[in-house]
Amino acid sequence: MLASTRVLFLFISVFHFACSYNSATSEEREIATNAIVLAIATTPAPAISCDSTSPSFSTLGTAGFDSSCGRSGCHNGTVRFNTANYSQVRGLTTPGNTNTSTLYSQIKGGMAIYSNPTIDRAVFCWIQGGSNP
Predict the structure, then answer these.
(1) Are 48 and 124 spatial neighbours (Cβ–Cβ below 8 Å)?
(2) How far apart are the first and last CA of the chain?
(3) 36 contact partners, CB below 8 Å, separation of at least 6
(4) pTM of the prediction?
(5) How many CB atoms lie within 10 A of CB 10?
(6) pLDDT tens digits, the chain, 133 residues: what are they?
């Protein structure tokens, strides 16, 4: 949370600088933009610890994956996959590797607004543990 606050503050500061001073050169604006990119790129991802080395698929439901992602109009089987269907969800993972798993990258990317830390952790641990049934 602290890292995202730092990045937000940096972004607002740079945006304010770029918009407030008409005398800023393109070189100064480029330096400010690079500062934001560098701050984002060097902010380490928080370490996630898992309670089990091989959690089962049911841990996703317990974390709220079904109720948050599988509600009507989302991933309930009519749109792309059914969150309660192990085979369909497993097909979106690379067991043991969250970095190359479509499911995890979507939860952390475009679908992050529908997720929460509990779901993120459950999905991370399930995939890292082998995407077991």
Answers:
(1) yes
(2) 32
(3) 7, 10, 11, 14
(4) 0.63
(5) 16
(6) 444 545 444 445 444 444 444 556 777 666 666 655 455 445 455 678 898 889 999 999 999 888 888 765 577 766 678 888 899 999 999 999 999 999 999 888 888 888 889 999 999 999 999 999 9
